[in-house]
Amino acid sequence: MADPQVQSLKQFILSETPDGYLIEIEGDKGASMAVTATPGQIDAIIDALADLLSEDEAADEVEHEDEG
Q: Which of 31, 11, 7 is closest to 23 using CA atoms?
């Protein structure tokens, strides 16, 4: 069962600031959050997303090989 407090992503804004970045996230029911991040933290987020996406792509490739 899905958590009723968890919302779907409606908007994501990444802005540059003098000290790093501002990340603003809004859910489909209006909840929002703003956090600051250092360049190193943004790099870690990018690396984590790249790893996750490459795992998904690898799983898709295996799935297609099994179908063939």
A: 11
